[in-house]
Amino acid sequence: MQRTIHLIGVPMDLGQSLRGVDVGPSAIRYAGLTQMLQKLNYIVVDCGNMTVPVRDTLALHHGLDFIRPISEVCELLYRQVASVISDGYLPLVMGGDHSIAVGSVGGATHDCPAGLLWIDAHADFNTPDISLSGNIHGMPLSILIGRGAPELVNAGRLGPKVEPENVVLIAVRDLDAAERRKLRESRMGIYTMREIDERGIAAVACEALERLSHVARLHVSLDMDSLDPHYAPGVGTPVTGGLNTREAHLLMELIAEDGRLGSIDVVEINPILDIQNRTATLAADLLASLLGKTIL
């Protein structure tokens, strides 16, 4: 039986100071994502883009000033993702900056717990009191476990949206000092690039999935800066030493083979910084692998 995927664009650029990620959903569409998924025998429903306030129309300047408009968008995204899953379909959310995960992960856990695979160069585990930049795209994971601005923590439903033991971070390599201390105290699974270098992505992926074996459904939150900027130059916060394309594809393929994938978000594609849409094209290719595309 054909499975249906709902594409949801969220042109959010309020969570960070560098402009351009609001064009991310269009770049992924331009890369041919719909056609790739149709070739995999999916029914694809493009829901268009959510309405997000245009940054220049808001009399706001500092990162934390954007808490309210971000929470309002995430509230709506929460409801849409929860509705898509309730109808038996798979939501694929295209960002936009990583603050949208407050809504996408929240909605994905509306009716039951889900395991969260957070694939990112950064942990996004800051809170307003320790953040060096005040940018909210550096905070969504802490918000999702219940720490941070109440408007965001309570978006969609009151309180935490995911338990720390249901979270695994992969490809982390750039952490603030205070953030590092909080991560060490958490109960989350954390696989840095050093561990991937030492053990290989296959071993890390299999162990991560086993770590989440107690949950029936998985949400993948793919930040394109998890890849090395040589392969994915169109991101706002590039960090050298990331995943190469084959490692990223193998990670996606192993998650697909696991069979529990229920929802996805892909974030932080900045076409203004990209080279010939290379990062969005790679994102579309990785999503195809995540949704079942194989070499043979």
Summarize the structure.
This protein has helices at 24-30, 33-39, 67-86, 101-108, 140-144, 150-153, 177-185, 193-199, 201-211, 245-258, 278-290; strands at 4-10, 43-49, 90-95, 115-119, 167-172, 189-192, 218-223, 261-267. The protein has 296 residues and is an alpha/beta fold. Helix 1 (24-30) crosses helix 11 and helix 3 packs parallel to helix 4 (101-108).
Average predicted confidence as pLDDT: 97
Considering the protein shown, what is the CATH homologous superfamily?
Ureohydrolase domain
User: What is the β-strand count?
Assistant: 8
Bin the strand percentage.
15-25%
Shape: globular
Count of all domains = 1
Rg calc: 17 Å
**Structural class, from secondary structure content?**
alpha/beta
Major β-sheet, in short? 8 strands, parallel
Instruction: Label the CATH architecture.
Output: 3-Layer(aba) Sandwich
H/E topology pattern? EHHEHEHEHHEHEHHEHEH
**What is the first-to-last residue Cα distance?**
21 Å
Provide the spatial order of strands within the biggest beta sheet: 2-1-3-8-7-4-5-6
How many individual helices? 11
Description:
The protein has 296 residues and is α/β, with parallel strands linked by helices. The chain has a single domain (4-290), classed as Arginase, Chain A (3-Layer(aba) Sandwich), CATH 3.40.800. Helix content is 35%, strand content 16%. The longest helix has 20 residues, at 67-86. It starts with a strand and ends in a 6-residue tail after the last helix.
